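Worked Example 4.2. Consider the chain below.
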Amino acid sequence: MNAIAIVNPDANWPAQYEKTAEVIGRILGDTVVRIDHIGSTSVPGLPAKDVLDIQATVAAESELDDAVELLVAADWEARPPRRDHPVPGLPTDEFQWVKRLVMEPQYRRRVNLHLRVAGRANQRYALLFRDYLRAHPDTAAAYGEFKRRAAALPLESVGEYADLKDPVCDLIYLPAEEWAAHTGWSV
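Applying the procedure from the previous section yields the following structure tokens:
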């Protein structure tokens, strides 16, 4: 059995995000400056794992642990601190890629909650990647096909799947930066 299951797009994902974001907002309060639906479930028509990716942005790195503590007190499961993969051509400073990952309480809708710092490269990456795919449905369709084919490989873990996707995402992200400059897109 493969470690990854890619499903057809679900028209309910945006509403599920809204409900989950409300819960997260109540838990985190003023600790966060924004909460965003990111990842494949945030792009209309894009096949995805049936897991909502949500990004909660804090103003400073010192607030990452505060946010995690609030979520853990509400029965969310904290994962060890980690870093997103650095994208070629973007800052290599490790602090640009720091994040915390928290999973939903048991028996709730599957969520990967990414806690990132405002203005850091990885916070911007998630939003620009999403918006570029929303504005370029043909690119999103090609990415969706890649995801289906990658998930069909005999992968042993979600980590292997993510490692396989990273360079493909970078190939999408680099022209997204040009698109952002051309259109005036900003976070």
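Residues 13-183 form a domain with the Beta Polymerase; domain 2 fold (CATH 3.30.460.10). The chain has one domain: 13-183. Compare this with Example 4.1 before moving on.
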